[in-house]
Amino acid sequence: MLSPMWNILIVFVTISVAYGKNDHVDLTQDWWETAVFYRIYVRSFMDSDGDGVGDINGITSRLEYLKEIGAEAAWLSPIFKSPMNDFGYDISDFYTIQPEYGSNDDFEQLLKKANELNIKIVLDFVPNHTSNESEWFIKSSSREEYYSDWYIWENGHIGHAGERQPPNNWVSSFGKSAWSYSPARDQYYLHQFGVAQPDLNYRNPVVVDEIKNIIKFWLEKGIAGLIMNSVNHVFEVDKDNYGGHYPDEPITGKPGLSPDDYGYLEHVYTKDQEETYELVSQLREVFDAISIRDNMTRIMMTNAYTNIKNAVKYYGDGILYGSHVPLNFVLIEDLDKYSDARDIKYAVDRWITYKPLRKQANWLTGDHDRSRVASRFRPELVDAFNMLVLLLPGIAITYMGEEIGMLDGFVPWSETKDPLACNTDDPVNFIEVSRDPVRTPFPWSNGKNSGFSMADRTWLPVGEGSEHLNVAHQRSAVRSHYQVYRALTNLRVRAAFKYGRLESLALNNDVFAFKRWHNDDTYVIVMNFGRTYQVVNLTSFDLVFGQLEVEVSSVLSSRTYNDNIPAGSVDLAANEALVLRMQA
Ligand SMILES: *[C@@H]1O[C@H](CO)[C@@H](O)[C@H](O)[C@H]1NC(C)=O
Ligand SMILES: *[C@@H]1O[C@H](CO)[C@@H](O)[C@H](O)[C@H]1NC(C)=O
Ligand SMILES: *[C@@H]1O[C@H](CO)[C@@H](O)[C@H](O)[C@H]1NC(C)=O
Ligand SMILES: CC(=O)N[C@H]1CO[C@H](CO)[C@@H](O)[C@@H]1O
Question: Which residue numbers delimit the Glycosyl hydrolase family 13 catalytic domain (predicted)?
Answer without folding.
Answer: 39-439
